[in-house]
Design a protein that fits this description.
Elements: H1 4-8, E1 18-19, E2 22-23, E3 25-26, H2 37-50, H3 60-79, E4 88-91, H4 94-109, E5 115-119, H5 128-137, E6 140-144, H6 158-162, E7 165-171, H7 183-192, E8 196-200, H8 212-215, E9 219-223, E10 234-238, H9 240-245, E11 256-259, E12 264-266, H10 280-296, H11 298-316, E13 322-325, E14 334-339, H12 344-353, E15 356-357, E16 359-361, H13 366-372, E17 377-381, H14 388-405
Parallel strand pairs: 3-15, 5-6, 5-7, 7-8, 8-9
Antiparallel strand pairs: 1-2, 4-10, 9-10, 11-12, 13-14, 14-17, 16-17
The chain binds ligand C6P.
Length: 406
């Protein structure tokens, strides 16, 4: 097991607390991650020293705020190896990024009968925006099926599924099952037939090295809060050629170059897609988070997370009456499960009483859960600050809880 937690655990003030008289075991990292001091300090420093509005004033503070915001754009571009800083549009997170693509590129390019190919693994954020677009345009949805509890994509009929597809939009890592999808291969196949591609990297950004040029996608979305950054900021990578063809998302300040009473001219991309005062403090925090993660190393983080998931899966498989979901290999750092005759809500509530934080429910993948035939699963999701002894504690708590509930 890697020595990462030993080195960095003290950087996270929230992890040092007790919950219900027990040391916190935070295994809800797929929902949101805890924040290191470097991120908290960057946000505080911004508000204490540099706070102003961006792109407007000629005064010192406004220049500093602009430098903070635009510096974060450079940092995001570098983090995902985008060809240019202009490829990065700041959003509130993954959800807004995907809605932006649906409302702009989708509305301008998809019409009646056009096919949008998704997978059965998708989070509601990569499903509902397309359903809304289908209602407006008459386009249609098609799904790459999952094989079963192991949650891998059934790619045996991918050529048939790709026929006539205009957009392929899929998750990189499933938040519900942990499946790591072969996004580069699928994007290449989709692009070979002229389709545009979007990768939902909400669960992969900050968890493994991301390279949009190696993946070869046209769009990629992620959230800052899932990689040690603050809530309310995320990014959309959008290839510049596509941005040029996309109508604006929202109207307002910042996104215009000239406004008359009856019409307006728009700012150049990516500013055209960033109406209103942006989340500068969020950008400062995101920048600090990316620096923090790169100093540890994304390869090491991925190895650590998947090792913990593997270990947890092994320990869980010793329980009687357990059903474990997700693939054995090619996976992210989480494990989902249910117990026969045990309500997931009872399980999570009793675990919380012992200081163990896990998530239960459909994890915003209701259709997937329907397909698996379960209303809810329990999910333990790991990050680089979690330890093997926390997994041991989690297993010990589960043993107690299951005994109590059965
Ligand atoms: N999944 C989870 O507990 P936002 O809310 O915009 O930051 O991220 C949305 C989102 C999109 N795609 C995937 C694959 C996700 O996992 C998420 C967020 C959280 O699994 C909250 S439901």
């Amino acid at each position: 097991m890697s020595a990462i937690p030993e080195r960095i655990r003290d950087d996270f003030p929230a992890l040092a607390q007790e919950i219900n008289g027990h040391p916190l075991v935070y295994f809800d990292n797929a929902a949101t991650t805890q924040k290191p001091r470097a991120v908290l300090d960057a946000i505080q420093k911004y508000y204490e020293h540099d706070n102003a509005n961006v792109h407007r004033g000629i005064h010192e503070l406004s220049n500093r705020a602009t430098a903070t915001y635009e510096g974060a754009r450079d940092r995001v571009a570098q983090f995902i190896n985008a060809p240019a800083r202009e490829d990065i549009i700041f959003t509130r997170g993954t959800t807004e990024a995907i809605n932006l693509v649906a409302a702009t590129w989708g509305a301008a390019n998809l019409g009646a009968g056009d096919v949008i190919l998704l997978t059965e693994l998708e989070h509601h954020s990569n499903l509902v925006p397309w359903q809304l677009l289908v209602e407006r345009t008459g386009a249609q949805l098609r799904f790459i099926p999952v094989t079963g509890d192991e949650g891998t994509l059934d790619l045996s009929v991918i050529d048939n599924l790709l026929a006539g597809v205009k957009l392929l939009s899929l998750t990189h890592i499933s938040n519900a099952l942990g499946t790591l999808n072969p996004v580069a291969e699928l994007c290449a196949q989709a692009q070979a037939i002229g389709a545009v591609t979007l990768v939902d990297a909400a669960q992969s950004a900050g968890h493994l090295p991301l390279d949009v040029q190696a993946i070869g996608c046209d769009f990629l979305a992620f959230s800052g809060h899932k990689l040690c950054g603050p809530t309310g900021i995320g990014a959309l990578f959008a290839r510049r050629e596509l941005q040029e063809t996309m109508p604006p998302y929202q109207g307002g300040g910042e996104m215009i170059s000239k406004v008359e009473f009856h019409k307006s001219e728009f700012n150049v991309p990516p500013h055209k897609f960033e109406a209103g005062t942006p989340n500068v403090a969020g950008a400062a925090g995101l920048h600090a988070a990316l620096d923090y993660l790169d100093a540890i190393g994304l390869d090491s983080i991925h190895a650590h997370d998947t090792e913990l998931a593997q270990y947890a899966q092994e320990q869980l498989s010793g329980f009687e009456g357990i059903r474990i979901f997700g693939p054995a290999a090619e996976r992210g750092g989480l494990v989902s499960f249910i117990f026969e005759n045990v309500h997931a809500l009872d399980l999570a509530t009793l675990a919380d009483q012992q200081g163990v934080a896990i998530r239960i429910g459909h994890h915003c993948t209701q259709p997937l859960h329907e397909k698996l035939g379960v209303p809810a699963t329990a999910r333990a999701s790991f990050y680089f600050y979690n330890t093997r002894s926390e997994v041991d504690r989690f297993i010990e708590v589960l043993q107690k809880v299951i005994k109590l509930l059965k």
